[in-house]
Design a protein that fits this description.
7 strands; alpha+beta; 192 residues; five-stranded antiparallel β-sheet
Length: 192
């Protein structure tokens, strides 16, 4: 799920805000031991820090519980929180791209980072839902062009990257691509 945690009118500096975030994440981890997260610290126009978090390993959690726990951590009765369900992996990638790579215009990053520290992080890295990475090495024969054509039809995002000699597939049914590649005489390499 996607969660946004915001401060009310009075707010702390970034270092205290990060301690609040870690206290909040520890509460989640005590209740659901398999939880993991990727977080991003961002500043609103008014200067208040707020967090965008991508949470993994949670069942349905009512907004009221998230709001209550965040309020208890920061000492506020009803702080603003936003919760969105993950609808697709494409949505996850879009959310991550939007909030993890956001840049404020005209910002002096050397001064900013020395005052604020890290802008993003991972909570319980070992619990993140990683997939095994496999590289398929195929020659530029007819099977390569069949695979590339199939990939372009299946995933429009591949089109821009497939101008080069290779392409990457991020699909849920990876085994069918792997069978087709093996049939074409490709070899597999495990990516470390």
């Amino acid at each position: 799920m996607f969660v946004t945690l915001t401060y009310p009118a009075s707010y702390p500096d970034a270092h205290v805000a990060k301690r609040h975030l870690f206290s909040f994440l520890k509460r989640l981890a005590r209740r659901w031991p398999g939880v993991s997260a990727v977080w991003r610290l961002e500043f609103q126009e008014r200067g208040a820090p707020h967090f965008h978090i991508l949470l993994f390993g949670l069942p349905f959690v009512p907004k009221g519980l998230i709001q209550k726990w965040w309020g208890e951590v920061i000492g506020c009765d009803r702080p603003f929180t936003r919760i969105e369900a993950v609808r697709s992996w494409r949505g996850v990638l879009g959310y991550a791209a939007k909030y993890m790579a956001k840049v404020a215009g005209g910002l002096d990053y050397v001064a900013y980072l020395s005052a604020v520290g890290r802008l993003w992080g991972v909570w319980c890295r070992a619990m993140l839902p990683w997939a095994a990475a496999v590289r398929v090495v195929a020659g530029l024969g007819p099977w390569f062009w069949m695979l590339r054509r199939a990939a372009r039809r299946r995933c429009r995002a591949v089109r821009a990257a497939s101008r080069w000699s290779g392409f990457m597939l991020f699909v849920s049914e990876w085994s069918s691509w792997l069978r087709l590649a093996m049939f074409s005489g490709a070899r597999l390499e495990e990516v470390a």
